[in-house]
Amino acid sequence: MAKYLTMGVETSCDETSVAIVEDGTKVLSNIISSQIETHQPFGGVVPEIASRKHLESITPVVQKALDDAGVGFQDINIIAVTYGPGLVGALLVGVSVAKAMAYALDIPLIGVNHLEGHVYASFLEHKFDFPVLCLVVSGGHTSLLHLKGHGDKELLGQTRDDAAGEAFDKIARYLGLGYPGGPAIEKEAQKGNPQAIEFPRAWLEKDSLDFSFSGLKSAVINYVHNAKQKGQEVNRADVAASFQQAVVDVLVEKTAVAARKVGTDTVILAGGVAANSSLREQLTARLKEEGKTVFFPSPVYCTDNAAMIACAGYFRYKRGEVSDLYLNAVPGLPFC
User: Fold this and answer.
1) CB burial of residue 247 (10 Å; 0-12, 13-18, 19+)
2) pLDDT tens across 271-285, in order?
3) Do domains 5-120+302-318 and 129-296 have the same CATH topology?
4) Where would you tag: which of 75, 158, 247, 283 has the fewest CB atoms within 10 A of its CB?
5) How many Å apart are CA 98 and CA 311, to the nearest integer?
6) Which architecture, in CATH terms, is 129-296?
C-alpha cells in the first residue's frame, strides 16, 4: 500500500515550523524554530518582527525537515498549511511558501485551521475511537468540542472574553514573570500555595459550558494593587498558584460536565495550555473518577508545531477537502 507523505507548514504566530508526516500520524520530522528570545524583551509577540523572522527562517526550516526525514521534494504527496487564525503577516509567509511548493510540485494543497491542528495533535501519539470530547486551551482560544468523526464537530462552549492562555500571559506580565506566561506562571506556582487566596471562579449561567476569565484576571490585578497600596508584601508564588488553581478548577469541572452531557468516555486535551502539568493531573484524576480516559499530546505537540497541521491536513485530504491556489491568510478564521 502506497504511503502518503504530508509536509506541514505552520507560521501563525512566533514559531516557524515544518514537518514531514507519513500516513497522517507517523512523524518523520518536526522542525520548530522559536522566536521566544526575540520577543521576550517586549513582553509579548511583536507582529511585524514575527513576520520578518518567519521570512528568514522558512527556507532553512523546510530543508532541515526534508533532511531529517530522509526525503526530497519529489517524495512529498500533500502540502498542508495553517491559513488562520493568527497574525496576518506571519500566516502569509507560510501560505505563500506552501502555495509555491504545491504549484511547483503539482501536488494537492490543504488549508488547515490552526485550532483544528491543535485538536489533531493527540492523533499523532494516541489511538482512540470517536466520539470524543476535546478541550482546547490556548493563548487565543478556550473551547469545548464534541468530535463525532473526522470533519464532524459540534461547538459546546467557548470563552466569552479572555482565553485561559491569554489570562496566563497577562497575569505573568503583571507579576513580572516574563514571557511566555504559561510556563512562567506554572514554574512560580510550584513554589506557592494554591489555596492561599480565594480568587473567583466564573461558572456563568446554570448548565453553561462557556468560559470567562476576564473577571479572574481583574481580581488578581486588584488583589496585588490593593496590597501594594496598603504597604503589604505580596507573595508572588501564592498569587500565581491561586490564580492557576482558579483557572484549572473551571476547566476541569466544565469538561467533566460536558463529557457527561455528550455521553463519551474519551476526552482529549489540546492547545498550548495543555502542557500545564496541574491541568493534566487534575483533569485526569477528575475524569478517572467517572470512568473516563484523558489523552493529551507530548509538550512539543501542545505548542505550535507543523506535525499537527500535517496530521489535520492529511485527514482533510482523505475527505476530499483540497484547497486551490487562491488560498489566502484569514487572521480571524472561525473554527466552528
Assistant:
1) buried
2) 989 999 999 999 999
3) yes
4) 75
5) 16
6) 2-Layer Sandwich (3.30)
Concatenating the DSSP letter of every residue in 205-245 gives STT---B--HHHHHHHHHHHHHHHHTTPPP-HHHHHHHHHH
Q: Global pTM? A: 0.93
Burial 252-261 (b: 16+ CB within 10 A, else e): bebbbebbee
Q: How far apart are the first and last CA of the chain?
A: 34
pLDDT digits (tens, 9 = 90+) for 200-250: 999 998 889 999 999 999 999 999 999 999 999 999 999 999 999 999 999
Are the C-beta atoms of residues 91 and 332 closer than 8 Å to each other? no
What is residue 130's DSSP assignment? S
Instruction: Record the cell numbers describing residue 9, joined without a space.
Output: 507548514
- Domain 5-120+302-318 fold is Nucleotidyltransferase; domain 5 (3.30.420)
